[in-house]
Structure formats: C-alpha cells, structure tokens
Amino acid sequence: MPSSVKHETWVVLLTPPGRGAIATLRVEGPDAMGAVEATVRMGGHHALRGMPFDRIVLGQIGEDRHSGEPIVLRRRADGSVQLHCHGGLAAVRRIETALLRQGCRPLGWRDWAQRRHDDPIQAAARSALADAPTQRTAAILLDQYHGALRHALDEIQAALHSGDAETAGRAIDALLARARLGQHLVRAWRVVLTGRPNVGKSTLLNAILGYRRAIVHHAPGTTRDVLTADTAIDGWPVELSDTAGLWRSEHPIDRAGVERAEAQAAEADLVVLVFDLAQPWSEPDRELLERWPSALVVHNKCDLAAEATGRPEGLMTSALTGQGIEALLDAIADRLVPRPPPPGAAVPFTSEQIEGLRLAAAALADGDRTEAMPRPEM
Ligand SMILES: Nc1nc2c(ncn2[C@@H]2O[C@H](COP(=O)(O)OP(=O)(O)OP(=O)(O)O)[C@@H](O)[C@H]2O)c(=O)[nH]1
Ligand SMILES: [Mg+2]
C-alpha cells in the first residue's frame, strides 16, 4: 500500500449496492472519528473518541427531526466507525456526500476487501464469492478463500525447491485441468440448443427451465432470434440459448436468424444438437452432425413412432412429456464438468492464476525450475 493511501480517511459502503432494509457504511483512516463527529449529530454525546468500543449510539444527519436521517453508529476497536442507516439509496448518498465534504474519500468494497487480505488469492476469492451464482460454485470459492489453492501452490513451490520437478509438474497439470471449471464459477457456461426447424428446440428449452420462456408452434421457423435464459444445471451456472432452426432460406430475416444461431453455437461451451426422432434421418441431419462433431446429440419427440434407421447414438427425449429430460441435464453437467472437484480441492479461478500456472507448466517443460515457481501475486 503506498504511504499516501494510509493517510487517507475512507468511506466504504459494506452492504450491496442498491436498496436494502439497512445500509452499513464504514469510515476508516486517521480522521475517521473527526469526520463522523463533524457530520453526525449524536443526541447527548458530542464525541465518539471517549466512548467504549462497540457501544451503540443514535445520531442523525441534518438539522431537524423531520428532515434528518437517523443513524446508528459504533466506534470500533480498530479505529474505524460503522454507520448503519436506512437502506434506501438517498439515505446512503446523503451520508456519503456529507462525509466526503469532511475530506473522506470513497472506496469500493472490493478494493477495501483487497487491502484487508495479505494473500491475493484470498482477496480474489472474497470478491468472487459475492458474484457466485450457485451454492455449488460458492462452496468451491469458499474452499479457495480458506486456502485450498494457496496450499497447493505452496506444495508446488516446496517440490521445486527440493528438486522434485516431476511432482511439481503433476500438481500444476492437476490444477490446470480445473482451470476451465475455475473460469465458470462466476461466469455462466454457455449452452446452445441448435438443430433444424421444428425439431423441438424451444419446447426443450422450456422443459429444461421449467417454465414457458420460448414460443412453441407446430409450424417450422417459429424462433427467429437467439433467446437466452439463466439457469443452473447440477449446480453449475448456465446461460441456455434457444436459436432459430438451421435451414437454407432466401428470406433475409430467416437468413439473419440462421446466422445468429450459428454464431451463438460457434461461441458456446457446449452445443446441444437436437434432431426429430419422428422424421427419417436425412442428409441435412448428417451435415449438421459433421458441422458440430463434438455436440451433445439429442433425438427429441421419443413419444412418437421412431424413425431409427441410420441414426447416430444420442439421448432420447420428449420435450412434450418430460421423458429423458433428467438424463439430458445429467449429460450436460457431465460434459461441462466431467470430473467435479472433491470438497476442499484447489481450483484456480482468475485469469492471472491460470496464466501463471500455464507459464509455470511451460517453464517446467523447458526444464527451467526457477521460472516455474508460482509467483506470490497469483
Ligand atoms: N410429440 C412431440 N412433439 C413435440 C416435442 N417437442 C416439440 N414438439 C412439437 O413440435 C413442434 C415444434 O416445436 P418447437 O419447440 O417450436 O420447435 P423448434 O425446434 O423450436 O422450431 P423452430 O423454432 O421453428 O426452429 C411443436 O408443435 C411442439 O409442440 C416432443 O418431444 N414430442
Ligand atoms: Mg423454436
């Protein structure tokens, strides 16, 4: 921390941005108490300084009882002051503005948290935890917050120090094998449903989500634009997209829909290629399969009489009756995260950590043990 930063007095909003029941602000730095005393009128008390730590004090900002903003404050043992106020945006802004007028400077909670942790992994995990969309991803980030990744990096370092490049290399590879998962603890996996028109993509999307997000119609060409919805599959955050059916059309709007569908699939983490089991397997079907060879293949409409001849292997579903949907969800989860980490496992989760590990792996491959040392700022 540069020394000038130490001499500032900061005001940090600790509760999430937006409206809440109560907001908590923290004032810290050399003039924390002076700034609060100059800002808040404390009934009966005039100074925070002599007050016992953590005693609750009532105060208000503003001159009179009608327009004043009530505040509850506490002097903390670490020299900071915590202010609790009404959680509306206006109350917070009013208090912040008053404190800034006293010379305090604003600080985002992520920067504040970063400064409180000596270990950058812990700071990054704390920040990522606030954005974790599911319990499962939060549990993995919490493991990293509690030191799982730091411990793994320390072990790699120890192995390198003792000249055991093989153990270090294996440990680095094991971490890198979880990098893809690590990058999707906060950011959703992109899963795209694609296939020819009328095969049941939109019905399948609705069946997976459990509500009617997409319009379904018996005529082909119903979906024209990309439609996305956030969901979780087996605890992994997923952005699921329904797309226009792929076919050759002369109509510019249809063509635009197909282009968008293809672009969406090209950027996906997983393409789910849907076919209509009630239609004979055809040349356009084969072409699609060739185009997306690593797609998860789904034969939909299994409630109808099947046209099984020449069909590749795939999951059988009925988006209409729900048959096979659970198995499809399992298959999607398995494709996204084939080997979920056991509880407490180390998972690199920031691009800096992953890049650092890649550099270390490359250095080891070149026989350079010094360069392979995990850098402390990872
Ligand atoms: N019997 C049966 N009908 C289905 C099934 N899935 C979808 N359908 C029907 O197939 C028709 C087309 O379904 P959609 O979900 O709109 O198909 P789509 O692939 O999204 O079609 P486009 O948007 O035109 O590309 C509708 O009449 C659905 O009710 C299924 O599993 N079984
Ligand atoms: Mg559709």
Care to describe what's here?
It is a single chain. The protein has 378 residues and is α/β, with parallel strands linked by helices. The mean pLDDT is 91. The strands form two sheets. It has a seven-stranded mixed sheet. The protein contains 14 helices and 13 strands. β11, α12 and β12 form a beta-alpha-beta unit. It has three domains: 113 residues, 2-Layer Sandwich (Gyrase A, domain 2); 83 residues, no CATH class; 148 residues, Rossmann fold, CATH 3.40.50. Guanosine-5'-triphosphate binds next to α10.
Low-confidence stretches: none
Total helix count? 14
The backbone outline, from C-alpha atoms, is flat
Spatially, the strands of the biggest sheet line up as: 3-4-5-6-2-1-7
Please state the second-level CATH architecture of the largest domain.
3-Layer(aba) Sandwich
CATH class of the largest domain: Alpha Beta
**CATH H-level homologous superfamily name of the largest domain:** P-loop containing nucleotide triphosphate hydrolases
The CATH topology of the largest domain comes to Rossmann fold
Number of strands: 13
The total number of structural domains is 3
- Strand count, sense and closure of the main sheet? 7 strands, mixed
Distinct bound molecules: guanosine-5'-triphosphate, magnesium ion
The radius of gyration is 28 Å
Mean pLDDT: 91
**Share of helical residues:** 25-40%
**Secondary-structure element pattern, one letter each:** HEEHEEEEHEHHHHHHEHEEHEHEEHH
Distance between the termini: 17 Å
- Measured by DSSP, the beta-strand proportion falls in 15-25%
The secondary structure category is alpha/beta
